[in-house]
């Protein structure tokens, strides 16, 4: 009838010993001390002798006559440990750009261990010629993680955790190990537990449906949030609670003083209210200060952190930021497995939640017929509906160990690549008019990182729009967006065209609003049109009002990103600066014999 089971330690060899990892998640530990079986100790990092030259905004080099974005132009030595000055032909535009990049960003040398990782765990990116720049959508899986997990499944007999058989005990043991690994990775103090869910969205829904919203309390959130955070407002409003938004700036996020004013204005009075914070926007690249969690808590709010976009490249310590609940999706952190997320939550917060139903696995006794039931005695089991994804939880443990080894180097690497990409794209000009090719809308980092272990004040996402050299054909836009400068509005190139060209060049990027309508509206300056929406409105209706396709082009970097990826993106954008190339691509996309000038 219930969910009683035990999780004794089995006498067989521990998984830690089998895969050879250190379970102490000290993010400053050398990589050789935290490694999977397939990752041996790496060579010591090289010392730079390059000067801190400033990256100049020069005209991008002309495309080589034999250039193709899907062909690797550099010798393989560039993706391994090599001297900072590659011994390659000075006639190679990419090689010259790489040498200039290293001179401008000598700190990049400290992250070359990630080039070895790219060469081993992510070699398929180079084999297939795919330039993957959609890490905000999902990380690429390391091949060694899949091999380790496949070998584990081959050797193990796993069973449903809701039993006491040997196979069930084994599954329960590794589920408990995964819980401990999650708590350790996020440096959670005693009093926290982990509820496994399908993803971060499911974890947010779990909080929203069970939080005790009522007539005299409220829900406070930022406009620049994911739809899964916005969706909680439906639970709040249906129970009579008030919903209040913290407005977004033009580049996303919020002004800290404004957020504090709104929280203070609606502070709970003899009741509880919920404040949801987006750690990192998935479209505006704005990283909100986690310090506001402590401020909200001091006013009596319960706090909820959406860390789905933040966790893959930032160190999060729940000891330093004791939020009541935090949600993550593991595929965004290390690519595999998909279909598993987590609610990392204070047990005291779980105890106040009021679940609207019960399910298999969450109860101990159920009266049938009748209305009596008793929930499971273990707190996290009361929130894990049905059977957890026990077959993949061992991969979560290994994935966290994998990521912890490289996380100290990642912010510095992404800082170098993001700065280079921003400068390079901003310098592009159309050959016929000298006007910019792109307009970067998202928040840019305010400072450049200098050493491994530092944390950035923004993410590594660039949201932008592409601009034509002249006015677009009249059939494309029927109504002008009054919030944008008309000359700019008339030069916006359709995102669907950009995506079409990117696909043809084997570049995986993303276009649209990224399930973040508030952030997108802020970047595009369409908040007024957003306010005029009506019940039943469709996306096509909205686009008719705005006068164009909605959304941006998003380029996001991650664990496996290297210089060649950003170079390919720059060359892709450069090709649209060339009038002949752009016209030919437009004609192919519109499928007309005589194209309209773009």
UniProtKB/TrEMBL annotation:
Record carries keyword Cytoplasm: no
Chain positions covered by the region annotation Disordered: 1-25
InterPro entries reported for this sequence: Aminotrans_V_dom, PyrdxlP-dep_Trfase, PyrdxlP-dep_Trfase_major, PyrdxlP-dep_Trfase_small
Domain Aminotransferase class V: 132-405
Swiss-Prot/TrEMBL GO biological process terms: molybdopterin cofactor metabolic process
Record's keyword terms, sorted: Transferase
One Pfam assignment: Aminotran_5
GO-annotated molecular function: molybdenum cofactor sulfurtransferase activity
Keyword Transferase annotated: yes
PANTHER family assigned to the protein according to its UniProt record, in alphabetical order: MOLYBDENUM COFACTOR SULFURASE, MOLYBDOPTERIN COFACTOR SULFURASE MOSC
Record protein name field: Pyridoxal phosphate-dependent transferase
Species the sequence originates in: Suillus subaureus
Lineage, broadest ranks: Eukaryota, Fungi, Dikarya, Basidiomycota, Agaricomycotina
């Amino acid at each position: 009838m219930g969910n009683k089971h035990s999780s004794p330690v089995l006498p067989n060899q521990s998984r830690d010993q089998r895969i050879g990892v250190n379970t102490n998640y000290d993010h400053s530990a050398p990589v050789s001390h935290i490694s999977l079986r397939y990752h041996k100790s790496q060579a010591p990092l090289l010392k730079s002798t390059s000067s801190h030259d400033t990256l100049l905004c020069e005209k991008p080099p002309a495309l080589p006559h034999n250039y193709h974005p899907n062909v690797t132009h550099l010798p393989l030595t560039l993706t391994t440990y090599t001297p900072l000055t590659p011994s390659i032909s000075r006639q190679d535009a990419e090689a010259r750009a790489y040498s200039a990049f290293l001179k401008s960003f000598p700190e990049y040398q400290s992250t070359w261990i990630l080039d070895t990782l790219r060469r081993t765990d992510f070699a398929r990116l180079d084999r297939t010629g795919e330039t993957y720049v959609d890490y905000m959508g999902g990380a690429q899986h390391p091949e060694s993680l899949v091999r380790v997990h496949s070998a584990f499944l081959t050797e193990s007999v796993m069973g449903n955790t809701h039993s006491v058989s040997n196979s069930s005990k084994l599954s329960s043991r590794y589920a408990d190990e995964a819980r401990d690994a999650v708590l350790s990775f996020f440096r959670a103090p005693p009093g926290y537990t982990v509820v496994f869910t399908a993803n971060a969205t499911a974890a947010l829904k779990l909080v929203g449906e069970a939080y005790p919203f009522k007539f005299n309390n409220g829900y406070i959130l930022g406009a620049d949030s994911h739809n899964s955070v916005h969706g909680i407002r439906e639970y709040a409003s249906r129970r009579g609670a008030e919903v209040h938004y913290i407005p977004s700036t033009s580049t996303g996020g919020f002004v800290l003083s404004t957020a504090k004013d709104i929280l203070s204005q609606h502070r709970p009075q003899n009741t509880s209210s919920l404040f949801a914070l987006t750690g990192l926007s998935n479209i505006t690249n704005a990283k909100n200060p986690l310090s506001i969690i402590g401020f909200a808590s001091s006013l009596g709010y319960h706090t909820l952190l959406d860390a789905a976009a933040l966790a893959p490249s930032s160190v999060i310590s729940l000891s330093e930021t004791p939020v009541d609940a935090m949600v993550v999706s593991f595929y965004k952190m290390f690519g595999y497995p998909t279909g598993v997320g987590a609610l990392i939550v204070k047990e005291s917060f779980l105890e106040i939640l009021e679940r609207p139903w019960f399910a298999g696995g969450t109860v101990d006794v159920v009266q049938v017929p009748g209305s009596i039931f008793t929930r499971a005695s273990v707190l996290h089991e009361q929130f894990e509906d049905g059977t957890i994804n026990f077959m993949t939880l061992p991969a979560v443990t290994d994935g966290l160990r994998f990521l912890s080894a490289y996380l100290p180097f990642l912010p510095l690497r992404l800082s170098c690549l993001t700065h280079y990409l921003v400068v390079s794209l901003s310098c592009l000009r159309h050959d016929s008019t000298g006007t910019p090719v792109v307009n970067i809308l998202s928040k840019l980092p305010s400072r450049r990182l200098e050493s491994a272990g530092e944390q950035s004040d923004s993410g590594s996402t660039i949201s932008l729009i592409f601009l034509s050299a002249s006015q677009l054909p009249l059939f494309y836009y029927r109504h002008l967006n009054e919030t944008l400068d008309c000359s700019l509005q008339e030069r916006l190139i359709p995102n669907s065209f950009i995506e079409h060209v990117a696909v043809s060049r084997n570049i995986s990027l993303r276009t649209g609003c990224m399930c973040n309508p508030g952030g997108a509206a802020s970047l595009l300056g369409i908040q007024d049109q957003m306010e005029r929406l009506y019940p039943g409105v469709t996306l096509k209706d909205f686009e008719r009002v705005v006068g164009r396709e909605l959304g941006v082009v998003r380029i996001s970097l991650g664990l496996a990103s290297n210089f060649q990826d950003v170079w390919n993106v720059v060359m892709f954008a450069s090709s649209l600066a060339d009038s002949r190339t752009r016209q030919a691509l437009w004609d192919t996309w519109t499928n007309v014999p005589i194209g309209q000038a773009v």
